Description:
With 213 residues, this protein is α+β, with helices and mostly antiparallel strands. The chain has two domains: 5-83 and 141-177; 86-138 and 191-206. Helix content is 36%, strand content 23%. The protein has six helices and eight strands. Strands 2-1-3-4-5-6-7-8 form an eight-stranded antiparallel sheet. α4 crosses α6. The radius of gyration is 21 Å and the shape is elongated. The N and C termini lie far apart (44 Å). Residues 177-195 have low confidence and may be disordered.
Amino acid sequence: MQIHAIHIDHLLSFDTFAWEGLDPHLNIIVGPNSAGKTNLFHALRAVRDALSPERAQATARWADAGHQGTDADTITIALDLPFTTAWEQGLLCAFLATVLCDQQEIQQTMVTATQRSPSADGLRRFADWVQERLRPEDISWLFTGRLVVTLVGRGGWQCRYEAHPEGPMFRLDLTGGGTLVGHAEHSQEVATQNWGSLFVAWSNRANRRPWFN
C-alpha cells in the first residue's frame, strides 16, 4: 500500500491542504520552519488514531487540534490509496466475503422482507459459495480508493473507505464501534445493503432444495 495523495482540512496549521501525485520513493520532506512538515506527520498519526480500537481515547487528543483562525469545528483527512500486494488484496477479499456472509444481517433482512428465515444449512452453503468465488480479479475496482477520517468537535472519529471515488461509489463504513460494515451506495440519496438480495439470488439459482426454514 502506498499513499498517492493526502488532503487535509482544518487541522493545526492547515486550513485547506492537498498534496497529490506523491512520489512512491519519497522518504524525506524539506521545508522552512513553520511550513507544516511536522503537522503533516501529525495528520498521518491522526489517521492511525482514528482507525485504532482505542479511537474513543484518541478523540480527546485531537479535539482541540482544529485550524486556528477558522470557525470550522470539523477536521477531515483523506488519503488516496492503491492496494497492490497480493496480501492486501486477499485481505480485502476476505473482508468483503465476511460482510456479505454476515448471518445476523442476512436473517434480519430476510425476515423483514419475506417473513422467512434462512436455514443454517443454507447460510453455510451460501458462505462457502461466496468465499469460493470471490477473487481479487473480480473486485479489482475495490483496490483503488480514498480513506477518509473526520472529527466533528468532540463527537468522535468517523472513518470510511470510498472505492473508485471517480465512478460509481462503493463505501465501507469503518466506524461502528470497531465493527466493520459494508454497503453499496448507488447514489447520494439511496444506499442499499445487499445481504438479503444476494442470498435470494443465490438460493434461486441453486434451486435444489429449500434454503429457508
